[in-house]
Amino acid sequence: MFRMILAAALTGSTLALGLAGVANAREITHAMGVTEVPDAPLRVVILTNEGTEALLHLGVHPVAAAQSWEGNPFYPHLADQLGDAVSLGTETAINLEMLAALEPDLIIGTKVRQEKIYPQLSAIAPTVMSETIGSAWLDNYQFYGEVLGLGDEAKANVAALEAHANALATAIGDATSETISLVRFAPGRTRIYSDHSFPGVVLDLVGFARPPLQRSEETFVQIGRERIPEMAGDRIFYFAADADDAESLTNLEEWLNDPLWLVLPAVEAGKATRVEELAWNLGGGIYSAYMMLDDIAEIYGVPAPAAD
Question: Does some domain include residue 163?
């Protein structure tokens, strides 16, 4: 079936799955062009982790989704809502044959991950793509809402998240002027994260200051230990693999015992805090953002704003 679908697409044949000329369809402009999508899709497939969070938050339960970076196969905070949704492999290794067998009526992905397989995806069902993920997650949330015909709901939900962050900022008060440094420790991939990252956007929603070096168009800078002084900030939030496997734990301990780390002012002041990588990095979507805000409230010793 999969080969037949692809063959039809490559020869320019009209697909039974296509929607051209169907009255209950809308044109959506996206990162790969313009695509007609159904007004009320029933079998939606999502190919990014942040997109999975967005769809579920909007009340849309996909028939299939990209596998979470951790979890079996989905993050614990999403597993119940996903129910029997099919795991299609990771964002960078989507199982196209399995996807085709599900006969979806809409596929949502991202150019930064799936540009090369866009022709195959489009041969299976109408496919739309965001430009990228990471720092674009909040814009993507609204984009997914428009694609699904839920634009007003998405706009209202973003406004609710912003109000939640503003309430937290009020509770924290003058401490939002502290410069917040974001660091990820991983074997061979230790990084300092900028404001153009998922957690950076969440910190900006609260209004935290960031070190000048962490105001950058680049999502992160990868460093060696000689650059530990660049991690400096009034507070440091850092994360590593939540599972604490032996290699990651050894790597983390080596960094945290490095003399350059130990003399950072935030470390000496007891203001370097480990946070969960799932919420602060891997999840990358709106549920993770709310989890981040709850973590920040706990760290600063203020009540978490009421759930929206």
Answer: no
Statement to judge: residues 283 and 198 lie in one domain: yes
In this structure, are 200 and 245 located in the same domain?
Answer: yes
Residue for token pair 């969440």: 202
Kindly give the pairing relationship between strand 127-130 and strand 25-30: unpaired
Closest to 88 in 3D by CA, of 121, 116, 40, 41: 121
Amino acid at 167: A
Q: CATH number of the domain that 242 lies in? A: 3.40.50.1980
Amino acid at 94: I
Say if residue 104 is preceded by a cis peptide, omega within 30 of 0: no
Residues 144 and 219 in one domain: no
Query: Given this model, what pLDDT does residue 229 score?
Result: 98
Q: Which residues contact 152 (CB under 8 A, 6 or more apart)?
A: 145
Residue 216, phi then psi, degrees to nearest 5: -155, 150
Comparing 162 with 70, the larger pLDDT belongs to: 162
pLDDT at 307 (0 to 100):
66
Distances (CA, A) of 71 to 14, 19, 97: 39, 35, 23
Range of the domain at 36: 2-149
Number of structural domains found in the chain: 2
Taking Cα atoms as reference points, which of 226, 238, 288, 295 lies closest to residue 266?
238
Structure confidence at residue 48 (pLDDT): 97
Lowest mean pLDDT among 16-30, 148-162, 193-207: 16-30
